[in-house]
Write a structure and sequence with these properties.
Length: about 230
């Protein structure tokens, strides 16, 4: 049944016009986002050799980009481009990207599903000298240590709990600019935390990660990285 709208009801007409305008704007925004994602897929072809299909790298020292917040990826690519974040390879690549290219690539990777990781296998250097085993019990003990550090931190040494910024499941906090960490490669996380600890990487707000990582032991960095790599 067609709803009758009195000719004299100007308020109703205005609300109807506003509803149509909002619907049109929403549709336009969705189409624009889809165009950006499709463009990003094409522009990301040069990234596949290191970061894998759909942003899921198979080399553990290269980060997965899938499901990362677009705002965080945009920030990092601009940091590589400006030199605020040091990496010769990434700086060279980012220098050839326009602002639109960076946005499109970031939007594409943000929409991809991150892959899960296999249970880490300990290297002999990580194992007890008396046991020299690669048992699942050993790695689960280390992951449990990392889980405790992730949830609770260590107040006695002023090591902040990761959950406060990166969420209970490693999903990050997009509005605050904190990246998603879940299912990231443990090797990449270990290297990243080590770089924060040494001061090799500093492009984070108020150097927050340096202040946290410098108080962590190498064993804690490994345990935390193993735990995060298992988050889904």
């Amino acid at each position: 049944m067609t709803k009758f709208i009195p000719k004299g009801n100007s308020m109703t007409k205005k609300l109807l016009a506003l509803s149509i305008a909002l619907a049109f704007t929403s549709t336009t925004a969705i189409l624009h986002a889809e165009d950006s994602i499709n463009a990003g897929k094409e522009k990301s072809e040069a990234c596949i050799s290191c970061h894998g299909e759909n942003g899921n790298s198979v080399i553990s020292t290269f980060p997965k980009l899938a499901e990362q917040h677009s705002s965080y990826l945009i920030k990092q690519l601009h940091a590589f481009k400006s030199g605020a974040r040091k990496n010769p390879m990434m700086s060279a690549i980012a220098s050839g990207l326009s602002d639109e290219d960076i946005t499109d690539i970031a939007n594409y990777y943000a929409e991809q599903k991150i892959s899960s990781n296999e249970l880490p296998i300990l290297d002999q250097d990580d194992e007890d000298e008396d046991k020299k085993s690669n048992s699942k019990d050993d790695i689960q003990t280390i992951i449990a240590q990392g889980a405790d550090l992730y949830r609770n931190g260590d107040l006695t040494r002023e090591v902040s709990a990761c959950i406060a910024c990166h969420g209970p499941f490693g999903e990050g906090n997009k509005p605050a600019g904190f990246p998603a960490l879940k299912s990231q490669h443990a090797d990449y996380l270990i290297q990243t935390l080590t770089d924060f600890k040494s001061g090799a990487r500093t492009n984070n707000p108020e150097n927050m990660m340096y202040m946290i990582a410098k108080k962590m032991t190498d064993e804690e960095i490994k345990a935390l990285s193993y735990r995060i790599s298992m988050m889904k």
